[in-house]
Amino acid sequence: MNTAASRPDSADAAAPPPSSNKRARITAITSGKGGVGKTFLSANLAAALARQGERVLVLDADLGLANLDVVLNLFPKITLHDVFTGKNTLEQAIVPAPGGFHVLLAGSGMVEYSRLTPEVRDLLVDVVAKVRPLFDRILLDTGAGISDVVLYTVSLADEVLVVTTPEPTALTDAYATIKVLATTQGRRDIRLLVNQVTRPGDGRTIRGQLQQVIDRYVTPGLESPVKLEFLGEIGTDKTVREAVTRRQLLLEAFPGCIAAQGVVAAATRLVT
Ligand SMILES: Nc1ncnc2c1ncn2[C@@H]1O[C@H](COP(=O)(O)OP(=O)(O)OP(=O)(O)O)[C@@H](O)[C@H]1O
Ligand SMILES: [Mg+2]
Q: In three state form, how does the secondary structure of 121-133 look?
């Protein structure tokens, strides 16, 4: 394991022992619109899942615009790029993160992997296959949108979590993403998390509205219905910005705040 984390004091430096042939459940965290909170959520959901006893790996799958390292205040010496080029082994690139989970960071220099070439496809499949036996859960922090590289990354996951905000533009893009996932990947159960809500309850209302549009315009062309499962809502909270600015996990910087409670509740639903 790469121990180049900037905060070795708080990081669990020990490599996770392989969990006897168990294959990690892979959850892709994606969105239609950018900047809705995928990376913040990936990191904090991972911390919440780790607290619940899962061995968790977050893979920075936003290869072109990776920034999981920024959110976690990590300065990795070895990244996926080095694994892809054969300079380092996968084990060396798996970094312990604050929060008791591990990360596989894309780092800089990954722009050449932002196009889905057969080579990128093979590299991604290979990495996922190799890390799968080592963890209970893998979170794929993907880029936004429906580019082929994002969709391909999502296709490697067992389940998909779509993140949106209540903004009409984000909702339109979330709908487009869900539609594409249903029609091109056969996804029928898609989880939804509504981030940055301003009124409690808005998240569930938004799920209902999106479900109605899906029932009307997406499901009729398919053999079985597409179901949106509400994973939860997280309010717009200044503690989130503060934690990101401090480059700390929300769950560590402000564990009692409403947004942190929302993350923990979402993680619990993810497990059940
Ligand atoms: N619940 C929230 N309350 C307040 N601010 C938030 C909340 N969630 C996210 N943010 C803000 O939004 C910013 C963008 O979040 P983040 O980088 O996680 O989005 P993203 O979906 O990963 O973006 P990209 O599509 O570029 O990868 C955060 O840095 C934070 O400042
Ligand atoms: Mg991101």
A: HHHHHHHHHHHHH
